[in-house]
Write a structure and sequence with these properties.
Distance between the termini: 17 Å
Shape: globular
Number of strands: 4
Strand content: 5-15%
Order of helices and strands: EHEHHEEHHH
Largest sheet: 4 strands, mixed
């Protein structure tokens, strides 16, 4: 099992950082988010120490898993931060920033307020599940809407084969219109 730890910007490939920054600027303007920062985390096989588990960020990163057990990104509304996995491609990080920024935006909207517990725990759990499901659908729709922009951002960092002098470089972005299941928080 992988464990997640924050890493500094210097450990993240430049193309990944630049793609995240370009998408951050776009979604910040598009969603009218006041502040939006990008932070990075990496996956390692080494287990977390007790001291690491006591760190609120490390704990947050390691208690939110995607449906298949991994994490690509996470929105942290208290600090207006989108955490991104440092080994994502330029395309993957651009999509992740869009998806997680949408979650931050949702929390600024009254219509997206989470349900409040009442006297009926079953009704509350049902309302919570529906709220969670609809916010995931909305964030995924936003990510899909910005997928062409994410691809355009990513293609900026793919070298043309003529510049390499040999076989074509692997492309970081899938062709437009292709759909792959992305794992998000």
């Amino acid at each position: 099992m992988q464990h997640y730890r924050p890493v500094g910007d210097a450990t993240v490939p430049q193309a990944t950082r630049l793609s995240a920054e370009r998408m951050r600027c776009r979604v910040r303007e598009d969603l009218r988010l006041g502040r939006l920062k990008i932070a990075w985390f990496a996956a390692r096989e080494r287990r977390l120490s007790d001291e690491e588990w006591a760190d609120p960020i490390v704990c947050l990163l390691n208690t939110h898993r995607g449906s298949e057990g991994d994490l690509r990104g996470l929105a942290c509304p208290e600090a207006s931060v989108v955490w991104c996995r440092s080994d994502l491609t330029s395309y993957g990080v651009a999509e992740t920033v869009a998806y997680e920024a949408r979650h931050l935006w949702q929390l600024t909207q009254k219509v997206w307020a989470p349900p409040i517990a009442g006297d009926d725990p079953v009704a509350f759990c049902s309302a919570w599940d529906e709220w969670y499901r609809t916010r995931e659908i909305d964030a995924e729709a936003y990510r899909r809407r910005l997928a062409p922009l994410a691809q355009k951002i990513a293609q900026r960092w793919v070298l043309p084969s003529s510049a390499l002098g040999h076989a074509p470089a692997p492309r970081e972005a899938p062709p437009l219109g292709s759909h792959r299941r992305l794992l998000f928080s």
